[in-house]
Every structure is written in C-alpha cells, then in structure tokens.
Dehydratase (Streptomyces variegatus), 283 residues
Amino acid sequence: MAGPTDLALTRPPSLAPLLARGALLSPFKRPGPDAEFPRTRLVLPGLRVDLARLAAYERVCGFPTGENALPVTYPHVLGFPLAMRLMSGRDFPLPLLGLVHTSVTVTRHARMPASDAYELSVYIEGLAPHRRGTQATVVTEVRGGRDVVWESRSTYLARHRTHHLGGTARETEARKPLPEVAEWRLAGDVGRRYGAASGDRNPIHLHPLTARLFGFPRAIAHGMWTVARCLAAHGVPESCHLRAEFRAPVLLPGTVTYAARDGRFELRGREDRIHATGDVYPV
C-alpha cells in the first residue's frame, strides 16, 4: 500500500473549530478496524516555539523554566493541532467525542533547543481492532534540518461493540508496586492551566459541570499532563525512549502518589489504583 501523501501547511491549525467540527460529526461516524482513514501526512515547516506558552507549560508540568531546551513531551503539544485536523475530518472513521488516548511512545534522538526552527509532520499510521473497539495510531515526527530529532506514536481508542476475540483483558502485571517517591495534591484548576498552555481545551478537563456531561463526576487531568509531571520529577536523558500507558482518569482536585525506581514510574491513586505507568531509558 502506498504511503501517505504530503500536504504542506503554512500555519498550525486552530484547535477550537476542529474540536467543534469533530464533535458535530461524531454521531455520524461508523468506527471499525477495516474502515478507510485519511492517507495524508500534514507537514508544517519552519515552526518556531512560542516561548511564553512553553514557559506556562513548563510551570504547570513541573519542568525547569528558562532553559533553552524543549521538555521531552512538548513536541506532542506542537503536533496536537495537526493530529486534531486529521481526526476531526469527515474521512476519519472514529468519533472524536469519547476518543480515549490510551498510550504514547516517544523517542528523542537529540537535545531540542527552544530557539530553533523545526519541521513538524503528523499522519495516521493505521487502525487496529481492540477488545473494546477500534484503535488508531497517530505518528508525529519533528525534524531539525534533515534529521528526525523526535518521534512519537500515540494510540487513541474509540469504544464500541466488537466481536473481536483476539485479546484478553489487560494482563495483570505481577510486578510489585514501585516505591513511593512523593504525594501530590492536585488543584482543581490543573486541567484549565494545562489546557491554556497546550491548547487542548477538551471540556472533560476544564470544569466539573462540563465533565459531568461526559460521565465524569469531576474534571479529569489530561493524560499527557500526568506523564509530563512524572517525567519532570523522574528526569529524562538527553537521548531517550519512553513509553507510557494511561490506565484510569485522575479526578481533579485530588491526591495521587508518584512512584518510581530505576527507569520505571507510575502514578497511583486511592487503594493503589494505577492511573499511569511507564518507563524511560537512554538510547
């Protein structure tokens, strides 16, 4: 099968109209692993980082501020508007409403100065059956010059009835819980602060009233915030590979436990419920 066709952009897409379009089209989507999906790679050359937004992101996630270097998770924020343009379109078969970010893997090949210009590209790699529905994989790549300096794969799950029997429930890990490092009390405005810094103003993250419309008792933290906060506390090698899975939502306000050992980390809630888990190591 031929690879995606490049479509060059002149500016990052605006997120608000994309989220609105995706919400309006969601009831008409017919998700399934065999559905057609966009075969376009969106490319944004000459991208420069808004340093004020970067500083706001660093503060809400706990990264050091004022350094001429992008946090390892920040390119995901840069690529998110392009991913939303693809996933909010008529030709994307999964409904944007209710789409769940289930995992992310990142490889950073080199230090990324915040003052440099980059080329950003995003495309949908494919769809796959999942025991709870259909999962899409979105690939983001960042180039500095001709070289890929950062790349990621994010999986997004649309839940629907399925006859897929190829997988069982998530394997229960036999590993012992990681040792506690810190307890974090999360304010109710974390979702709003992260939304302002990242541009991801999904209503489930902003206010209890809007979160209740989607079945949550309170606002929930962004999954990428939970991972970024863990990595800010853990520390990340300059060239690294990381993997994280989002297991359960973090309600805001709330209290969570950050635990880590060697290259592994996790975020736990009450009764040791796992919210996020992952690992990071040098490459």
